[in-house]
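2024-03-11 09:14:02 DEBUG pipeline.ingest accepted 1 chain
2024-03-11 09:14:02 DEBUG pipeline.ingest length=77
2024-03-11 09:14:03 DEBUG pipeline.predict start
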Amino acid sequence: MEVILKEDYPSLGYVGDQVKVRPGFARNLLIPRGIAVEASARNARLLKHQLDGIRVKRLKRKAEAEEYGKTLAGLVL
């Protein structure tokens, strides 16, 4: 059974990877816990959209943190 990982799973791969696992493993562990979704074109598009949103938020937070770091570097205590 093909699944797309929604979270990092040490023995399988990383977020967004499409991996082949046994049906019982996917049905009983990965899918119910939200670690993976069944591989389909629709699920792949949805996951890609979610990952793009997460990347944008990370970049924004990083820029804010760097800006805050610059202001802290200018302070003398």
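2024-03-11 09:14:41 DEBUG pipeline.report Residues 55 and 61 are 10 Å apart (CA to CA).
2024-03-11 09:14:41 DEBUG pipeline.predict end
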